[in-house]
Amino acid sequence: MKTSNGNTSIVDMFEKGKVLKICAPMVRYSKLAFRSLVRKYDCDICFTPMIVATDFMQSVKARDSEFTTNESDRPLIVQFAAHDAQTLADAACVVAPFSDGVDLNCGCPQRWAMSAGYGACLINKPELVKDMVRLVRNQVNNPNYTASIKIRIHKDLRRTVDLCQKAESAGVSWITVHGRTAEERHQPVHYESIKTIKDSVSIPVIANGDIKYLRDVESTHQLTGVDGVMVARGLLANPAMFAGYEDTPLECIWDWVDISIEQGTQFTCFHHHLIYMLERVSSQPERKVFNSLSSTSAVIDYLQNTYGPLVGVSCL
């Protein structure tokens, strides 16, 4: 898909009649190496971790550490936390040559984010969201560059519908709906609310929340009629989930080792991802040993001794 030169928009992907499979923005986790991995296993679109737009614009160090990509890292959406339109639009202009769209986080329920005016508190400020979407669309000099939002729902769903319709009127490209309120954490996802939002707008809607297996992708589509699904924890546990694997296959584990070594992934990140991947396929004593390992070489030795090497994979 040619998006880097502005000839094609991600929005065109929604018109093919399939349910798009999307890797969610995950702080510390949805970085370049992990995006490279899930793209090998049928992930259609990846999001960066949430980046605070003000820090990004004020600090070269923040830009270099928070936003890393390469030519094969497409289609790519950069998610920002922002609470004023100009800062978001300026940040969008910086990343536009290296990505396919920006997303405004209107769903993060963490206290630090909401107290700073970011994340889920924005669902209560529809006019501000409208202004931010509109300015991004006006300021980025590429009509195919997308501006999307990721939201949570209100207890009074009429307010959420109003927010989404206002965002649509401002030119938002699509909306991702996490089917819980800002106060809810592990309660069941409100699929009927996602369906109501989908039915109330004419732009694509993405469902997010509690999708752990490929079969959940289809059941969520059937329940809501959405155009795509976004997955976070399900992909951490099994980066090959979208390709139909029930648990992380050995091939995927060695792919992660290869990618991490090639890209120079820090050990803590490399190790943490493997802890997630192995959780469902290892015993508690095995996890205790694995979690205590403290070097890349020790991890590779453990994987080879416990699971065996994958024929044809050059991980060393």
Summarize the structure in words.
The structure is a single chain. The protein has 14 helices and nine strands. The longest helix has 14 residues, at 126-139. The protein has helices at 32-39, 53-58, 60-66, 85-95, 111-115, 126-139, 157-169, 191-200, 214-224, 233-237, 250-263, 267-278, 284-291, 296-307; strands at 20-23, 45-47, 51-52, 76-81, 101-106, 146-152, 175-178, 205-208, 228-231. An eight-stranded parallel β-barrel has the order 1-2-4-5-6-7-8-9, surrounded by six helices. The model is unreliable at 1-5 and 312-316 (pLDDT under 50). It is globular, with a radius of gyration of 19 Å. It is of the alpha/beta class.
Ordered list of secondary-structure elements with their pairings:
Blueprint: E1 20-23, H1 32-39, E2 45-47, E3 51-52, H2 53-58, H3 60-66, E4 76-81, H4 85-95, E5 101-106, H5 111-115, H6 126-139, E6 146-152, H7 157-169, E7 175-178, H8 191-200, E8 205-208, H9 214-224, E9 228-231, H10 233-237, H11 250-263, H12 267-278, H13 284-291, H14 296-307
Parallel strand pairs: 1-2, 1-9, 2-4, 3-4, 4-5, 5-6, 6-7, 7-8, 8-9
What is this structure, in a nutshell?
It comes from Cyclopterus lumpus (Lumpsucker). Strands 1-2-4-5-6-7-8-9 form an eight-stranded parallel barrel, surrounded by six helices. The protein is built from 14 helices and nine strands.
* Share of helical residues: 40-55%
Q: Helical segment tally?
A: 14
Strand order of the largest sheet: 1-2-4-5-6-7-8-9
Residue ranges: pLDDT <50 for 5 or more in a row?
1-5, 312-316
Helices and strands, in order, run as: EHEEHHEHEHHEHEHEHEHHHHH
Derived from helix and strand composition plus strand pairing, the structural class reads: alpha/beta
**In angstroms, what separates the terminal alpha carbons?**
32 Å
Q: Choose one word for the global shape.
A: globular
Radius of gyration: 19 Å
Percent strand: 5-15%
Largest sheet entry: 8 strands, parallel, barrel
Number of strands: 9
Average pLDDT metric: 94
